[in-house]
Write a structure and sequence with these properties.
heterodimer, A: alpha+beta, Arc Repressor Mutant, subunit A, 6 helices, B: 4 domains, ten-stranded mixed beta sheet, elongated
């Protein structure tokens, strides 16, 4: 069951992980573990962040200058690498969010979301 | 591609590992908080995270520039494989270094001397013009120009070209001043527009103006940069001061830059001071059409070609000949670019040397390729396994190329150092070569070196890789059995390489043999006099202080008497130019007793002034008649001695004694009193008929002192110079050298060329021998089992020896035949470098054949003997 869920997650997360990481950092600096946790919690455990893509993604984001990193102490007082949203990252997040909204609406239209909902009500 | 990231990826990885550790620790803490046991908490955390290694690898990959990474890996791998067999690596690198180094050095010389434009303004428009006679086709048509012709050329070429003239073979005595010694310097007379025509400006002061270039002008001199630095320590105040040349005051009006050098096929690169021709040359010489004292340079104006100018001036010169029908007046004009004129004499030999180094580089590449093939044969199993496991052919090829690139690069770096050393040596060894001062390694040379390295790497790497064939994988894997198929095939490729190598070696050997033989001939040429223990030195009496012939003669007579009385001097004499020390002037003469010759004809005899004791001192034999007497001087000096060849030329079948010769160049008649032996004026030139006149009188103010001693004649140089210093402290002595040194100096080019080509040929021979040895030794190892069986079955040792020897010698024989053929074809190109040696000299070809067979035989004998001495039991057990 887990395996099945992972596969679907992996497909779903393709292209959206970067956006969600940026969104998570909007509320404040966080290290890798917190980021993963927040995404999972917020999605009510539907999305499970695969670590195999989290760290490469963080790396990529830092490389593009959308996040910066610094070393600090975690809640449990461990040495941790904290990520922070940069100004460029903030602009990128707005752009990606807009695009995501458009996409979601478009896909919704194609899938006839309204109709489905109506049928459900009947 | 992110270079910063690529370079910092190791640090990033450490950071990432730390991040992962943190993640796992946090997850474990949370799991424990949920109530799991610590083991379970750890297990679940790892399950959730997956493989930390995979995450790290994927980030690492993300940070990597793939191409660089794989190239770096190949490089490391190649370095490691090469360092595993250091002897092989060392040999290959040295071979490459020799090949590349020699090529870089020669390329630098060819580029700087032959190809680079002259350092003047717009040098492609500069040409040199000469006179010659139409009927004398076979002799060099580039003859100096008479000042009278120059004046006519200048007006007839107006609008097409700007003409200037220079006479770069003059000399002055610079007087002793301010504690400096007197010295004799090489000098040039030039027309005032010489420097503007070249387009060079003085470093200080000014150049000549038309006003300086006339008989009544105030004497002016321009110093060369090197002379100014050497004699005047680079003092700028010297401009405007007076210096004394030939005991006459000259104002220094300018100093040329040190970089300015004028060079021509008649020399000029040693000129230290420049004076104005119109002021220096006697008025008759500025008007004559017969005394060829000048070189003419011209700057072509837009729209004029060299051929056009030559034909325009040719017409003018033809008219001159028609108007002034006299011996020595030429009727044609020739020209070539100034660059060609300067370097023509070096072209053949430099290109021949470059070709020789090219051969050497090719041999070096073939050798390295052959070594790589041998190595890949030894590693065939490793390579087969890698291919069987899916190693891509391209990957393996790239690996091979990386290996040869590494070898060539190391060789090239070493070669560049070698070239640098070789060039430093060459500049010192060939100081007299035109433009030698411009030789230096520049960016283009380094770029060419890098190109050569890449080409060598590609060449040797590809040849080595071409030997592999995909079908051989299985065979290679099976080769531990007695199937030697692959080994033989590999050796086959090496044999082909060897044939090429041997044939190139033979070509080099033939060239070296010919040059060496020509050098030997040159060395052994008989100058006409015994060469050992003869010292010569030159002096020139300034007319300003020795005005009357009586004074000159008195000085010379006193001088030679005192020299003769020095201890150690066996004999001494005076002459204007000693044998082997140059042309020294020629005059047109006719025989008074013979019917008059047609106008404009006569015998061209070389003229020498000699003192009675000269012939005994230098040991020129008296064939007939008598030598001058000591009272045949000044007004009684109209007697002459002629050389044997002159006697044959002017008096065929007659007794010349008592006859008279009319020297039309000076308009005097001389009575022939004796015939003496022939001497050569230059070691590499044929004997020229000569007439000797008494040096006491006949307007001679230059003299060469010739001293013969029983031993160590060099030790007399100082006492004689001191003696001259006592007699006239302001008289410089120049060209102090023994006759042996004179010959060494004039054979230096030939010696240089032959020694270099010989060195290249020897290296090539060594490489070929090593190659032959290597292939045969490899074959013997490969065929140990087979030979063991043959011997066990009763094959005689001699049979085995013959079998192996023939096997090894076959490529040498084939290469020899190819090389002799190629050599016979190319030696024509170096004909002009050979002295009295035919390009197809049978002795040279024979000794090359013998040498090669001997060396090849020796190289093959060692492994063949090893094969013949095999113990069959041992041989069969090894496999």
């Amino acid at each position: 069951m887990t395996a099945k869920k992972n596969v679907s997650n992996a497909e779903m997360l393709k292209g959206t992980l970067d956006m969600m990481i940026l969104r998570t950092l909007l509320t404040g600096d966080a290290h890798g573990h917190t980021i993963a946790k927040v995404i999972e919690r917020t999605s009510e455990d539907v999305l499970e962040v695969e670590q195999g893509s989290l760290y490469p993604a963080l790396h990529r984001l830092e490389d593009r200058g959308w996040v910066s990193s610094h070393w600090g102490a975690s809640e449990n007082n461990r040495k941790a690498k904290f990520y922070r949203l940069t100004a460029a990252g903030r602009r990128q997040l707005i752009q990606e969010t807009n695009r995501w909204r458009q996409m979601a609406r478009a896909i919704g239209l194609v899938m006839g979301e309204k109709k489905l909902v109506n049928e459900g009500e009947q | 591609m992110n270079w910063r990231r690529f370079c910092r990826r190791r640090g990033a990885d450490v950071d990432l590992a730390q991040e992962i550790d943190l993640y796992l620790a946090e997850e474990i803490d949370e799991n424990i908080a949920r109530g799991m046991s610590s083991d379970e908490a750890r297990r679940q955390a790892y399950l959730k995270f997956g493989s930390p290694q995979r995450v790290r690898e994927s980030v690492w990959q993300q940070n990597t520039v793939t191409l660089i990474d794989s190239a770096w890996r190949d490089l490391k791998y190649a370095a490691r494989t090469l360092s595993r067999s250091p002897e092989f690596t060392l040999v290959a690198v040295l071979v490459m270094a020799l090949g590349i180094g020699a090529n870089i050095a020669l390329f630098t010389v060819v580029r700087c001397v032959l190809l680079n434009p002259l350092p003047y303004r717009d040098p492609s428009q500069l040409v040199s013009l000469f006179e010659h006679s139409r009927d004398q086709k076979e002799v060099n048509p580039y003859f100096p120009v008479a000042a009278g012709s120059f004046a006519i050329w200048q007006s007839s070429a107006a609008g097409a070209a700007k003409l200037a003239m220079v006479s770069p073979w003059q000399q002055y005595n610079v007087s002793a001043e301010g504690g400096k010694l007197p010295e004799q310097v090489d000098a040039a007379w030039c027309s005032w527009n010489f420097f503007p025509t070249l387009g060079v400006a003085p470093a200080m002061g000014r150049v000549f103006t038309a006003d300086d270039d006339r008989p009544g002008a105030e004497a002016a001199v321009i110093l060369s940069g090197s002379f100014w630095k050497r004699r005047y320590s680079g003092d700028p105040a010297v401009v405007g001061k007076k210096i004394w040349l030939d005991a006459k005051p000259y104002t220094v009006i300018g100093v040329m830059p040190s970089s300015f050098v004028y060079s021509s096929s008649f020399g000029g690169n040693t000129v230290q001071v420049w004076t104005a021709a119109g002021h220096e040359a006697p008025p008759w010489q500025m008007r004559t059409f017969r005394d060829h004292e000048f070189l003419v340079i011209a700057r072509l104006l837009p729209g004029t070609t060299l051929a056009g100018l030559v034909s325009q001036l040719g017409a003018a010169q033809k008219q001159i000949k028609a108007d002034h029908l006299a011996p020595g007046v030429h009727d044609a004009v020739s020209g070539r670019t100034m660059l060609d004129d300067s370097v023509q004499g070096y072209k053949t030999s430099l290109y021949a040397l470059l070709a020789a180094t090219g051969c050497l580089l090719l041999i070096a590449c073939l050798n390295v390729a052959s070594l790589l093939v041998a190595r890949s044969a030894a590693r065939s199993k490793e390579l087969a396994i890698r291919e069987a496991l899916g190693g891509g052919r391209v990957r393996l090829l790239v690996e091979r190329l990386t290996e040869s690139l590494l070898l060539s690069a190391a060789g090239g770096a070493l070669g560049l150092l070698l070239a640098w050393g070789a060039l430093a040596w060459l500049v010192r060894a060939r100081v007299t070569m035109n433009r030698v001062e411009t030789i230096h390694i520049d960016g283009v040379v380094v770029a060419a070196a890098v190109g050569a390295i890449l080409l060598c790497a590609l060449f040797s790497g590809l040849i080595a890789a071409a030997g592999r064939d995909g079908k051989q994988i299985l065979a290679s894997l099976q080769e531990s059995s007695r199937a030697h198929h692959t080994g033989r095939a590999r050796a086959g490729l090496r044999r082909v390489l060897l044939v090429l190598e041997v044939s190139l070696t033979v070509v080099l050997l033939v060239g070296a043999g010919l040059l060496l033989k020509s050098y030997e001939r040159l060395r052994n040429t008989d100058l006409g006099v015994p060469e050992d223990n003869v010292l010569t030195m030159h002096l020139s009496l300034p007319e300003a202080r020795y005005k009357e012939p009586v004074e000159q003669v008195a000085f010379l007579e006193r001088l030679i008497e005192r020299v003769r009385s020095l201890p150690g001097v066996q004999a001494a004499g005076l002459v204007t130019a000693a044998p082997g020390q140059g042309w020294g002037g020629d005059h047109m003469v006719s025989v008074v007793e013979h019917p008059p010759l047609p106008k404009g004809e006569g015998f061209g005899l070389m003229v020498r002034g000699a003192e009675p004791g000269y012939f005994a001192a230098i040991q020129i034999p008296l064939v007939h008649g008598r030598i001058f007497t000591s009272d045949e001087r000044l007004t009684r000096a109209h007697v002459a001695l002629i050389s044997q060849s002159a006697a044959q030329l002017c008096f065929p079948g007659e007794d010349p004694i008592g006859r008279h010769l009319n020297d039309s160049s000076v308009g005097e008649v001389y009575e022939v009193v004796g015939v003496v032996g022939d001497t050569r004026w230059s070691i590499s030139q044929p004997v020229h008929p000569t007439i000797y006149k008494p040096i006491y009188g006949n307007d001679y103010s230059v003299a060469t002192i010739v001293i013969r001693s029983a031993r160590n004649v060099e030790t007399l140089a100082m006492p004689v110079q001191k003696l001259i210093g006592e007699m006239d402290p302001d008289l410089p002595v120049s060209n102090v050298m023994t006759l042996r040194e004179t010959i060494g100096k004039s054979t230096i080019d030939s010696r240089f060329d032959s020694i270099l080509v010989l060195a290249f040929a020897m290296i090539a021979l060594l490489l070929a021998a090593v190659g032959l040895y290597g292939v045969l030794a490899y074959l013997v190892t490969q065929r140990t089992g087979e030979i063991g069986i043959r011997i066990a079955l009763g094959a005689q040792r001699e049979q085995v020896l013959r079998l192996m020897l023939l096997d090894g010698l076959r490529p040498a024989l084939l290469g020899l035949i190819l090389g002799l053929g190629a050599g016979a074809a190319v030696v024509r190109l170096i004909r002009s470098m050979l002295y009295e040696t035919e390009p197809l000299d049978p002795a040279v070809f024979f000794s090359v054949t013998a040498t090669l067979l001997l060396v090849a035989g020796l190289a093959c004998l060692v492994p063949a003997l090893r094969a013949a001495k095999l113990d069959p039991v041992q041989a069969l057990k090894t496999k």
